[in-house]
Amino acid sequence: MAYKDILVYADAAPAAAARLDAAVLLAKAQDAHLVALHVGIPPFIPVDLLGTGVSVDLIEWQMQQRQAQADAARNVVLAAEQRHGLSIEWRKLDGVIDDALVDQSRYADLIVLSQDTPLTDLDAPAGPAAGSIVMAAGRPVLIVPKDYKGAAIGRHVLVAWKPSAEATRAVHDALPLLQRAKAVTVMRANPDPEEPAHNPGFDLATHLARHGVKVTVMPVLTPDISAGAAILDQARAMQADLIVMGAYGHSRLRELVFGGATHSLLQAPPVPVLMSR
Hints:
Elements: E1 5-9, H1 16-30, E2 33-40, H2 56-84, E3 89-94, H3 97-105, E4 110-114, H4 130-137, E5 141-144, E6 156-160, H5 165-173, H6 175-178, E7 183-189, H7 202-209, E8 215-220, H8 227-237, E9 242-246, E10 249-252, E11 255-258, H9 260-267, E12 273-276
Parallel strand pairs: 1-2, 1-4, 2-3, 4-5, 6-7, 6-9, 7-8, 9-12
Antiparallel strand pairs: 5-12, 10-11
Helix pairs in contact: 1-2, 3-4, 8-9
InterPro entries: Universal_stress_UspA, UspA
Protein name: Universal stress protein
Family: Belongs to the universal stress protein A family.
């Protein structure tokens, strides 16, 4: 089992090179085809309340800016090709970034994005929202730290497990990585007291072992800290280079509201995080 099509978002943001480097590492390890997708945002046409006409110069300036952004993104992709000696397919579309990414993800095994950037109410998103893509795409998303400089992804993997649909989906979406890992630790933080005593992750370990995955189970009781903090602490302690977890959230008045651990790892992942919904 392996990923054969990997989709990475391409732009010229400060995190772009790290994101592409992570995508290339995976593409090489999985012998996968890598697609770099850039989305050009349509020009903003203000409402002409005074009836004086919308300035053509304004539209032309926006078009020039959009082309400059695409050219800069293409140069970042070309630089990654030269650094790694891997051919990357360049794909450019026009539209809404998140919508285009979700549409193109239908034909990919994995999406690679950078961590979410906290925005104020006045900020306009400059790139894809990883949390929104995880919730909408139906494909696993690898979320890469903005300053990522790792040499490999998936040698030492921490699985943040709970017996839920989201975590189950994430684990099975991660199988191509888990099967190649040197070590996989299944962490069950604060097991429910009503769970069977034998099942803080041991049933999952048995299942993964049948897929050839080398698994250690670690039930962790952390009543005084959040699940997100416990996951981060364990990842650092075992020097994990990948975290696998389900994404938990819901929509409230058109806003996505994420669970605590999901929110923490979307915005401040210490290592790449594979999330599925």
